[in-house]
Amino acid sequence: MTGTPLAARLARADALPGATELREATYELLRCGPGDRALDVGCGGGRAVAELCARGVRAVGADRDPSMLAIARELAPAPEFVEADVLRLPFPDGEFRGYRADKVLHELADPAAAVAEARRVLAPGGRVVLCGQDWDTLVLDSDRPALTRAIVHARADAIAGPRVARQYRTLLVDAGFAEIAVEVRTLVDTDGSLLPLLDGLAAAARTAGVATGGQVDGWLAEQSARAAAGRFFLAVPIFVASATVPSTVDDQ
């Protein structure tokens, strides 16, 4: 399984400069210690679950994609992984001390329902951490800035919630969380590790008709040439929001 294209793509993303530090920052924000039960929704390949378990946390990974869970179980066979919908989690009220959702909410038509579900499964005093990019703010160096802007926005418009990251604070307020904090951390790729990401942008641009096939092909060729010449630059600002479930009514 570790030799599949999907596993290779996950490994490239994990190896990006700043990716490890970003994951570790989300663990610190969870404030979960040994023995605490924490849920990682949209767990993907299970890297975060494995790393949380290494800290002594009783981490559970949930994902709706069986192929992702297969990779996760190979990476970390001991922890618990479940196939589940983030809007209908198969856990009782107050089951967890921590809830983590990394690059998940932008895929949902109703992110508010997911945040409400996070509140339900968290115990009083429990912590939620939401992490993800605003798809309008991918920063890519190019000799064709207007075309790049059109392509980035075409990809954003093809996503259910491309700008949900800028809404994290409001979603947490509306769900009744307290101690809400938001920060931004930026992942930077200068060696072309994320070139495959541009294929998705290009496909969306073709579908939306924002550029001709020749223009899109030329744009991709330019980025490949930049990577080969050491001139590639892609920055992805990642928004990280954290909050606490009030312990009492007075805390709200």
Automatic annotation (TrEMBL):
List the InterPro entries: Methyltransf_11 (IPR013216), SAM-dependent_MTases_sf (IPR029063)
Check the record and name the Pfam families matching this protein: Methyltransf_11
Name the SUPFAM superfamilies on file: S-adenosyl-L-methionine-dependent methyltransferases
**Gene Ontology biological-process annotations:** methylation
- Keywords linked to the UniProt accession: Methyltransferase, Transferase
Q: Which residues form the Methyltransferase type domain?
A: 39-130
**Tree of life domain:** Bacteria
Q: Name one GO molecular function term.
A: S-adenosylmethionine-dependent methyltransferase activity
Matching CDD domains: AdoMet_MTases
Check the record and name the PANTHER family matching this protein.
METHYLTRANSFERASE, SLR0407 PROTEIN
- What protein name is recorded for this chain? Methyltransferase domain-containing protein
Q: Which organism is it from?
A: Amycolatopsis iheyensis
List the taxonomic lineage: Bacteria, Bacillati, Actinomycetota, Actinomycetes, Pseudonocardiales
